[in-house]
Amino acid sequence: MKLTTAVLAAGAAVSLTTAVVGATRLRQEARYQTERNEAFLTRNQLDWLAQMSTNPDLAKLWAPKDMDVEEYMQLLAANRLICILSVRDRLGFVRDGQLPFFAERLMQSDACRRYWQRFGGLRAEEAEGDEQGEHFTQVLDRAAKQHPRAQAAAT
Questions:
Q1: Residue 133, C-beta contacts closer than 8 angstroms, at least 6 positions apart
Q2: Could you report the per-residue pLDDT of 38-47, keeping only the tens digit for each?
Q3: Beta strand spans in the chain (E)
């Protein structure tokens, strides 16, 4: 092989490697930006739920017409707990097999079961098309339905 051919081949290989590394870095940056955006939005949601579940005047503005403000505040506090578990699951802090355990623990709370009975269907709609969200919702729904008090009420 001639020296010029070898130099051109080496230059092409370096250029290709640089392009691949650059494209990989761009994908990684995009993924990190998506994660940062999701963390920011989650923080906003949790802050909003904390305010709504502790401030009756604010909760009154958002409470459904057919629901007492105190009840709405309790359900929002339950939703906050569910959201915290959801974030932990999305970030990978809930190991395989732990989600049903945590879901069962949440559903031991009467407020969490009432929240799920009232808004679980809405959460299922929100999760459509998101495989991890759908799985999370199914696990919580199963835990809510399998709770002894829920089963007793169904009979």
A1: 86, 126, 127
A2: 888 989 999 9
A3: none
